[in-house]
């Protein structure tokens, strides 16, 4: 029960809620299933809380495994006392546990080990009493040709080596030093001499320092990357005098004699040789972990927003992967995304066969009854868009740009080869662009999440933690939307609660051999899809043309009897309940409360009956960039433009304004009010209005603002932009964030 109480206290929930959640998790239930279909058991904990409990219980169990290993090791050494065991049992963090274990941990041959071999430990013990005695005479007693101790200084040095190790292994002192490093330590970065030119992208970190406790995650990762690339030297420590003073207060007695002087020398040696490197390593790991968590949080939130982008739906789509020299790759797709036709056209330079290309496009639009044209936003995108819009196509045909980030990764993947073994890479990329317009979620799950281009330092963070978080995000998005089992790809089905790649493939194989599923119950015939997997998955799978009306809804099969009872009580059918708001209004939910079903589940069921199988994503809206603004050279300071948010970082948002280079709206320019988190005001794929603040064509940098009057502080006379915008007077490190990122998104 200790786990439950501890986690409940941390999350400020009841221990019973935590206990029930742990039992469900241990029983194989997934986070989406628990938060959606076991609300009574958990007290309506949401996905975030359930996932937090899952992660925390894993941490605590790992801590206990380490505790058991340490106890076993010390016991085997014959050194485990009741007091020591009590301390080990009470340790609540891994660092505290390791501090206690440090004196008993098997070591390599250290300076202290060598000194002990020379018989100098009794001298070290005498010195550590810090009493007054004849130091030289005592040290002389340890001179020995056999032990290679030839001078008094050698004897004292050996004793100090032992003292330094004792001081380093003092658990309570290490706790104080850890606190000092974290609360008073400073990150200090310097450029490696001679590398100033090659390290120019880290210029703002050439001579940079800031407190460890307030350093934002993106700057921590930037400095670490500069160090890893051998451009910067990075330290993470407090002032040496402050650190040594802490040790002296902890170790020294109130005395002044030659023994105390030796202890002071040992303290300085201990700090410089042992404690400082050890604590700095710990602090680097702790701050890296914290920075990773923030970067992963930002990435996961961006990914969630991208996955839940508005779908166009089942329409016939023409997709164009634009280009200049190699032409535009054009494909036509059916309403379910099936590949119908491929063509290469050359409307742009250098071929400029626009008349021929125009006839091709118009002919294909008519032949395949095209309802929308998706144009990738890469090279030649604006030129291709202008060409398509000049063709005089029917007004009913939507023409829109699609973010193609990661399409090239998909086109060369095993997934793409499996789907289209006979198509060229570039053709597969065009198919991906078209399908993204139809259903972003269904297509983006085929791409490794970190290749989608919405992260911040994603290649620098802990890759296992990143994968886990992104998998959670994809699973949450997929199950939140629901999956049509008869059209979903293996990749999409893989993320459904309770399935995974093997069962997903089995479902695809089963429907290929037996035709479309006609009921959820039929899923039980899929090889290896047992009762547990069915329980976890069924509520998230949809069968739109099923015989049972609830098979296309989010109502779980385990509650069908309950809904049928509701219908029977009103002398109607389930289908009548779905079609009649008047009938649903007569349902008295409290009449159906039982030991296993409470109001939260009943309210979910009633909401689902009102809109069965509803898609939680927003309705698709056509977006158009500013006509005539196709490249950076078209941008002018003060120009107001429509744009689309493509990426959000801890310090701002990137916005595509149609010039092949995303601009940065810094945190300070996202709103007219103060904000701490960009997610307060923007989301990925959001349509926004921005003002151009600065344009640097040479370095491909664009600064944008979303403020109503972004130049108010620059030119107060008329509110118009000043002739030459001035730099922001913010700290240099913040400007470093802007400049480093204006080239594009982190991770590229």
UniProtKB/TrEMBL annotation:
What biological-process terms (Gene Ontology) are attached? nucleobase-containing compound metabolic process; translation
Note down the stretches annotated as region Disordered.
Answer: 709-737
Which Gene Ontology CC terms are recorded?
cytoplasm
Q: Which SMART domains match?
A: S1 (SM00316), YqgFc (SM00732)
Name a GO molecular-function annotation. mRNA binding
Key word Ligase present:
no
- Ranges for domain S1 motif: 638-707
Is Coiled coil among this UniProt entry's keywords?
yes
Domain of life, source organism: Bacteria
Kindly state which keywords UniProt assigns to this record, in alphabetical order: Coiled coil
UniProt cross-references to InterPro entries, sorted A to Z: HHH_9, NA-bd_OB-fold, Ribos_protein_bS1-like, RNaseH-like_sf, RuvA_2-like, S1_domain, S1_Tex, Tex-like_central_region
UniProt feature coiled coil, ranges: 135-183
One Pfam family here: S1
CDD domains the record matches: S1_Tex
Record protein name field: S1 motif domain-containing protein
Task: Please tell me the species this chain comes from.
Answer: Algoriphagus boritolerans DSM 17298 = JCM 18970
Q: What is the lineage of its organism?
A: Bacteria, Pseudomonadati, Bacteroidota, Cytophagia, Cytophagales
